[in-house]
Specification:
Chain A has 355 residues and is of the alpha/beta class. Helices cover 41% and strands 7% of the residues of chain A. In chain A, helix 2 packs across helix 3. Chain B has a two-stranded antiparallel sheet with strand order 1-2. Classes of the chains: A alpha/beta (355), B mainly alpha (238).
C-alpha cells in the first residue's frame, strides 16, 4: 500500500495544524468555498499519493526555479518533496543510471496512474540530437514516460508553446509537447516561468481531486488563465483615463501611469500576475514599472518589440506594423485614385472637345 | 411619325434603393467612420491627460464609442442580410454576386476596361455594375464580416468567460489566430483594408455620378435611379 499525502507530510515533520492550514489556503487559492478545505484534507488523508515524473527537455530551468520559490512554504515543502521523491533530474539526489532507473520503475509500477510534468520541449531536428538525456534524445524519454501516464502537465511556455528555442527560425525544431504527444490529456501552464503558486495549486488540485482542473480551449486551467493581466491591473484606471507613460522616466512613469504606449502586453496576455503577483506577492513586472512582455502567450518572442504597442509584421520589412502596412496600402490607393481622377478629367475634357 | 422615332427608348427613373436600405447605408457609413477613428486611437492613444485619473475617462469614452458603433454596424449588417432576403432584387446584388456566371464576368471585364480608359463608354445598369458588385462583395461584405467576428472576439475578452461574446466569438477566434495579439494585429490590418475600400467607393461613386450613364449618389439618397441618355440599358441585371 502506497502512502497517502497526509502520511508523507507527517513523515516530513509537518504538524496536523499546519496541514489543515495548507488545505484551507489551497482551497482559497483554487477559488473554492470554505467547505472544500475539509474535502481537500479528507482526500489527502485517504488517497494514495500519485507519483509525478518531472522531465526536463530543452529549457532554462526557470520553471523549477519559480516552483521552489512558491510563496506558501508548506506548498513548497509538501509538493516538492512529493514530486522529488520520484524523478526530477534537476533537484533529485540520485544521478546517472540510478536516476534513469526511477523512470522505468514508475512506468512499470504505476502504469496508467502517474502524472508526467514536462519542463521544456523536445527538439525534433537531427532525430532529436539537440537535447540528450542519459545518452538518448529527450524526445525518446518523453515518449517512453508518457506512454502509460494518466495526464501530462506542460510547465511553462517551452512545453506549452515552444518559447525562445522555438522562436523564428527555430533551428532545432523545438516543438511543444502537445504536438509530439497527441493521445494524452495535456494541461498547459504557460509562462516564462509560470507563477509559483499557480504551479503548486495545479499540482495540488490534480493530486487532491484526481482530475484535471477545468481547462479553456487552449488547454490552460481556467482558474488562473481566464483573465488578462490588463483586466485586473492596478494601473487600469490610468488606462481608462487616458494617462500613459510616454517615455521611460518621464513624469507619467514616476506617477505610475499605464504602460500601454510602452508596449505593455497586459491587454493581450492571459495570466494571474496582476492578482497573485510574484515572490510571495511582492510585485509583478508592471508594478516594477516595466510593461508585461506577454511571456505566457503563444509565440511571444516573434511578435516584435516588447516596447511597441503594435506587432511587427516582418513579411513587409523589419520595421513594419499594421499601421505602416495598412496606411501604406491606403496611401498608394489614394494616390492611384487621385491619378485616375486626373486622367478621367483630362479624358472627359478631350471628349467634350470632340463633341 | 416614322418607325425610327418610335424605337427611341425613353428610360424612366427606376426605384432601386428602398428606404430601409438607404437608411442602413448611411448609418453604416457613419458607424464605420466612428469605428475607424476610435479604433485608430485605441491602437495609438492620444497624448496623456493631465490631472487625476479619477477626473478623466478619455480612453474609456473612446472605447465606449468604438463598442457602441461596433454594435450598430454589427446589428446593421444582420439587418442588411435580412434585407437581402426581404428587399427587392437589387438588395441581393452585393451579398450574392453570380460568381459562376460567365456573362457576369464579361461585364466585370468590360467595366475594368472602362476604368483603364480602354472602353469608350460604360454599360448602363439599373443596379450595380458587375465590378462594383464584385468589389463590394470582396472588400465590404467579407471585410466587415471579418471585423465583426474579430471585433466581438476582442470585446469578449473584456466581458470575460461566460459572456455570450466570449463563448460565441473569443472562445474559437483567439485560439484560431494563436493568441490575442495576432487578433489585434489582423483587426488593425483589415481596418486599413476597409479604409481602402472607402477611398475607392467614394471616388468611384463621385466619378460614376459624373461620367457614367446613370445617377449614383443621388440614388442612395432618394432611392431613384435616373438615366442620362435615352438608349437602352444593355447591362444585364444579375
Amino acid at each position: 500500500m502506497t502512502e497517502t499525502f497526509y502520511e508523507v507530510m507527517r513523515r516530513q515533520g509537518i504538524s496536523r495544524r499546519s496541514f489543515l492550514k495548507f488545505c484551507s489556503l489551497t482551497a482559497a487559492a483554487l477559488g473554492l468555498g470554505p467547505e472544500f478545505a475539509g474535502k481537500i484534507a479528507h482526500a489527502m488523508e485517504n488517497k494514495p499519493r500519485i507519483p509525478i515524473l518531472w522531465l526536463h527537455g530543452l529549457e532554462c530551468t526557470c520553471c523549477s526555479e519559480s516552483f521552489i520559490r512558491s510563496a506558501h512554504p508548506l506548498a513548497k515543502d509538501v509538493i516538492l518533496s512529493m514530486v522529488s521523491l520520484d524523478y526530477d533530474d534537476t533537484i533529485m539526489a540520485a544521478s546517472g543510471h540510478q536516476a534513469e532507473a526511477i523512470v522505468e520503475e514508475i512506468v512499470e509500477k504505476y502504469k496508467g496512474n502517474y502524472i508526467v510534468a514536462v519542463e521544456g520541449n523536445p527538439p525534433l531536428n537531427e532525430d532529436g540530437m539537440y537535447c540528450i538525456i542519459g545518452g538518448k534524445p529527450f524526445v525518446e524519454q518523453l515518449r517512453y514516460a508518457t506512454e502509460h501516464c494518466k495526464a501530462i502537465i506542460s510547465w511553462g511556455s517551452c512545453a506549452s508553446y515552444g518559447c525562445v528555442q522555438a522562436a523564428r527560425p527555430n533551428p532545432t525544431r523545438a516543438t511543444p509537447v502537445h504536438k509530439v504527444i497527441t493521445d494524452k490529456p495535456i494541461i498547459k501552464v504557460p509562462g516564462c516561468p509560470p507563477i509559483a503558486e499557480v504551479m503548486t495549486a495545479v499540482v495540488t488540485y490534480m493530486l487532491t481531486f484526481e482530475r484535471m482542473p477545468e481547462l479553456d480551449r487552449q488547454g490552460r486551467p481556467k482558474m488562473f488563465y481566464s483573465q488578462r493581466i490588463h483586466d485586473k491591473c492596478y494601473r487600469r484606471p490610468h488606462f481608462d483615463a487616458g494617462q500613459f507613460v510616454e517615455s521611460w522616466d518621464d513624469e507619467g512613469a514616476r506617477k505610475g501611469y499605464c504602460l500601454y504606449k510602452m508596449g505593455c502586453k497586459g491587454p493581450t496576455t492571459y495570466n494571474a500576475c496582476s492578482t497573485i503577483r510574484w515572490n510571495e506577492g511582492t510585485s509583478f513586472p508592471i508594478q516594477a514599472g516595466h510593461g508585461c512582455i506577454g511571456c505566457s502567450e503563444d509565440g511571444f518572442w516573434d511578435k516584435g518589440s516588447w516596447y511597441a504597442r503594435l506587432t511587427d509584421i516582418n513579411q513587409f520589412g523589419i520595421e513594419s506594423n499594421a499601421d505602416a502596412v495598412g496606411g501604406g496600402v491606403a496611401a498608394v490607393v489614394g494616390g492611384a485614385v487621385a491619378a485616375h481622377a486626373a486622367v478621367s478629367a483630362v479624358k472627359r475634357a478631350a471628349n467634350k472637345g470632340e463633341e | 411619325m416614322t418607325s425610327k422615332a418610335a424605337r427611341v427608348h425613353a428610360e424612366p427613373a427606376v426605384y432601386v434603393y428602398e428606404a430601409p436600405l438607404r437608411l442602413w447605408h448611411w448609418i453604416n457609413a457613419l458607424g464605420i467612420t466612428v469605428l475607424a477613428v476610435t479604433g485608430y486611437f485605441i491602437g495609438s492613444p492620444l497624448p496623456s491627460m493631465p490631472g487625476e485619473a479619477s477626473d478623466n475617462f478619455l480612453m474609456g469614452y473612446i472605447r465606449f464609442a468604438h463598442f457602441a458603433a461596433g454594435y450598430v454596424v454589427a446589428i446593421g449588417f444582420l439587418f442588411r442580410l435580412y434585407w437581402a432576403v426581404m428587399g427587392n432584387e437589387h438588395a441581393r446584388q452585393i451579398i450574392l454576386p453570380p460568381l459562376f456566371n460567365a456573362e457576369w464576368w464579361k461585364g466585370v471585364f468590360h467595366e475594368v476596361r472602362w476604368y483603364l480608359f480602354l472602353a469608350k463608354e460604360p454599360k448602363k445598369y439599373i443596379g450595380h455594375n458587375p465590378l462594383a458588385q464584385l468589389v463590394m462583395y470582396v472588400m465590404f461584405v467579407w471585410g466587415i464580416l471579418f471585423m465583426i467576428v474579430t471585433g466581438f472576439a476582442l470585446y469578449g475578452e473584456g466581458t470575460g468567460m461566460g459572456s455570450w461574446q466570449y463563448e460565441l466569438f473569443s472562445a474559437w477566434v483567439v485560439p484560431l489566430f494563436g493568441q490575442s495579439q495576432d487578433v489585434h494585429t489582423w483587426h488593425h490590418l483589415i481596418m486599413w483594408y476597409i479604409i481602402t475600400f472607402v477611398i475607392i467607393h467614394v471616388y468611384v461613386a463621385v466619378r460614376e455620378d459624373i461620367m457614367s450613364r446613370q445617377s449614383i449618389i443621388s440614388s442612395m439618397i432618394s432611392g431613384w435611379r435616373t438615366f442620362k441618355d435615352t438608349r437602352r440599358t444593355e447591362g444585364d441585371e444579375f
